[in-house]
Specification:
Layout (H helix, E strand, L loop, with lengths): L1 E6 L7 H15 L3 E6 L32 H7 L2 E7 L7 H16 L8 E8 L4 H14 L12 E3 L10 H21 L1
Parallel strand pairs: 1-2, 1-3, 3-4, 4-5
């Protein structure tokens, strides 16, 4: 079993990345492989609603975008998707939404390859906006017919400066519990 953990932050080594890596470590302790992907290293272009993904046999986007290469295969091969985003003006980052818009369109037009995979989200906020951002990411999972586990609280943590999230003990515990619940659910579904 494999989890694809994606940090939607444009900042390398920041709080979102820290939390995704903590979750992947917890999943590894449960015997589940993980792949970490940072959108800081993959600045995915937004969907242009061209419809090209519906007009080709290939399960991919027709848009030329080196940052998007291999993304669909990563989503197909994963049994679970773990998304992390900082809050940007009350919502997920544009980087995250560009990725999800494109993957979502392709999945719906190509055999709904996200259906019945496990999906979980983690959100980092300086002060506010985390609940809407968490809901926004969960809406993606739900409309994709994915299965969403919960945790002991909302999957959020607080921090602005790099590493500040490490001071949020409750947030860290919530992320670890989320990973435990993801592992349990993935094993039940296998």
């Amino acid at each position: 079993m494999k989890v694809l953990g994606i940090s939607g932050s444009p900042r390398r080594g920041g709080n979102t990345e820290i939390l995704i890596r903590i979750a992947l470590e917890s999943l590894a302790a449960e015997g589940i492989d993980g792949e970490f992907l940072s959108l800081a290293d993959h600045p995915v272009k937004p969907c242009t609603a061209c419809g090209g993904c519906a007009s080709t046999e290939k399960i991919d986007c027709v848009q030329e975008d080196p940052a998007f290469e291999g993304m669909i295969q990563r989503f197909i091969e994963a049994d679970a998707i773990l998304l992390g985003s900082p809050v940007y003006f009350g919502s997920a980052t544009p980087q995250m939404m560009s990725l999800l818009d494109r993957v979502g369109h392709i999945s719906r037009r190509k055999h709904n390859f996200l259906r019945r995979k496990v999906g979980a989200a983690i959100v980092v906020a300086r002060r506010a906006g985390q609940n809407f951002t968490l809901a926004q990411l969960n809406y993606f999972f739900l409309v994709s017919e994915m299965i969403v586990p919960g945790s002991s609280y909302w999957n959020i943590a607080f921090g602005r400066d790099k590493g500040e999230v490490n001071s949020d003990a409750e947030g860290i515990d919530t992320v670890k519990r989320l990973a435990e619940n993801m592992a349990w659910l993935m094993k039940k579904l296998a």
